[in-house]
Amino acid sequence: MSTRPNSPAAKDIAYNLHPYTNARRHEESGPLIVDHGKGVHVYDDQGKEYIEGMGGLWCVALGFGEERLVKAATEQMQRLPYYHSFAQKSHEPSIELSERLLDMAPGELGKVFYANSGSEANDTVVKLVWYYNNALGRPNKKKIISRIKGYHGVTVASASLTGLPANHRDFDLPIDGIMHTACPHHYHNAFPGESEEEFASRMAGQLEEMILREGPDTVAAFIGEPVMGAGGVIVPPKTYWDKIQRVCRKYDVLVIADEVICGFGRTGEMFGSDVFDIKPDLLVVSKQITSAYMPLSAVLMTDQIYQAVADNTAKISTFGHGYTASAHPVATAVALENLKILEERKIVDHVKKVAPRLQDGLRRFADHPLVGEVRGIGLMAAVELVADKEQRSLFDPVGRVGFHLYDVAQKNGLILRNVGDSLAFCPPLIISEDEIDTLLDRFGQALDETYSWSTRTGVAAE
Predict the structure, then answer these.
(1) Beta strand segments in 302-444, E
(2) Which strands form 49-52's sheet, in the order they lie side by side?
(3) Residue 297 and residue 116 in contact, taking contact as beta carbons nearer than 8 Å
(4) pTM for this one?
(5) What mean pLDDT do residues 73-86 have?
(6) 462 pLDDT exceeds 50?
(7) How buried is 27 (Cβ within 10 angstroms: 0-12 exposed, 13-18 middle, 19+ buried)?
(8) Could you tell me which residues are beta bridge partners of residue 380?
(9) Are 335 and 296 in contact (CB under 8 A)?
(10) ∠42-47-51 over CA atoms, to 5°?
(11) Rounded to whole angstroms, how far apart are CA atoms 313 and 317?
(12) Which of 129, 214, 231, 373 has the smallest CB count inside 10 Å?
């Protein structure tokens, strides 16, 4: 007769397979069990306080414990806890949210389709692009170009778009028809003496070469995050998006802006597309649309795409795609309230005000022996650790030092995320300057402790 585990940690180890986790390491060390949160802080089941420096997973815009969002969810659950949007059914929260999204979105977008996560939304984007070109009688124009280190999700199609090895390895990905062009990371990928503008021109040139090599009649779309998030918070070089868009327009390649992380104020503007003057044909949002209080994502599309899709649904009698919880009434009601709060409290203006405190504060670590590059925009940033500052060389293996710093920071009451040896920051948008100062102090302490460990163990030279 086997014994059953009693503690929550033991039960977690016994019963749960965690995403993005080394399962064997988890069996040895167990979980951090988060019990509750308030503002920019979360508290574990022992009562210890942490600054949530990642806003969960790049997503808790309004922080933890926002009563208006709880009330919006509760009231909608009491009125209509669920209904679907298949077969011409609808409800007011989704209708109002679609109108609001289209009013605030960049470019000329005219219709909204709802899903439940960024992964589902980007999976939908792939299918829409294929469906659209079939509707136009272009069955060969199906290839989609993404970027190395881009992140677009983990479903079969969206993980194929993602340009990170861990999301492909042993999953038999990427699928056919998905290609990856160069990562626009000037720090690592520029030639010696190459300016940002020259580097951007070379990146656009490589994209054009790929399109011509594959055949413009076979390339359907280019997808990119305005600022690359889970690939390491990589801010594009000057003129990059302008030049990339010109190449896409030249060859009738759709531009897809993945705003899952950048959207709703993260960059200091409502959308990352506003910062870089991106005019998307398709735009994807999730995460901060509800401050992650409810799962929700949306794909916004131009009227040109919608009209071709709509004509085809008439031709074949339906649009055979959708999710049980597409446009869920509780999720869309929470999103509506979330967007109202962002506007009423002038959260984007607040981000502009406090972002320099984070960006300048992190850049003060640039001279630290472990730090190679500090990069970021708005309230998202990364500090990259390198083995050799002059050569910009990486640690071997990549990720060992970054994970150690992540672990030490958590013990010091700061939750971050290591992307290899880059430490990512993405705190709730409501964070104050005083809270940023505390975050910086805890990070500095963890950085120094990591340096001491690295020199003591021989990972880094003194």
Answers:
(1) 371-377, 380-385, 414-415, 417-419, 422-425
(2) 34-38, 41-44, 49-52, 414-415
(3) yes
(4) 0.96
(5) 98
(6) no
(7) exposed
(8) 377
(9) yes
(10) 30
(11) 5
(12) 214
Q: What is the pLDDT of residue 1?
A: 38
Cα 345 to the center of its chain, rounded Å? 24
Supply the pLDDT for residue 4.
75
Pair 149, 164: CB distance under 8 Å: yes
Q: Which amino acid is at 323?
A: Y
DSSP symbols for 24-54: HHHHHH----EEEEEBTEEEETT--EEEETT
Question: Which structure tokens are listed for 318?
Answer: 């339906």
The distance between the two most distant Cα atoms of the chain, rounded to a whole number of Å, is 70
The β-bridge relationship of strands 371-377 and 297-301 is unpaired
Measured CA to CA, the distance from residue 57 to residue 235 in angstroms comes to 19
Distance in angstroms (rounded) separating the CA atoms of residues 358 and 356: 5
* 3 state DSSP class of 143: strand
415-437 pLDDT, tens per residue?
Answer: 999 999 999 999 999 999 999 99
**In this structure, is the dihedral angle defined by the CA atoms of residues 281, 282, 287 and 292, taken in order, positive or negative?**
positive
User: One-letter amino acid identity for 377?
Assistant: I
Q: Which residues pair with 425 in a beta bridge?
A: 381
pLDDT of residue 461: 56
- The conformation of residue 234, written as its DSSP 8-state character, comes to B
Report, in this order, helix, strand and coil percent for the chain, each rounded to 5.
45, 15, 40
CB-based contact 161:126 (threshold 8 Å): yes
Amino acid identity for residue 175 in this structure: I
Name the strand (E) or helix (H) holding 200.
helix 196-214
Prior bond to 329 cis, omega within 30? Answer: no
Please give the Cα distance from 222 to 6 (Å, whole number): 50
Q: Among 269, 340, 273, which Cα is nearest to 300's?
A: 273
Inter-CA distances, 149 with 118, 160, 229, 250, Å: 16, 12, 9, 25
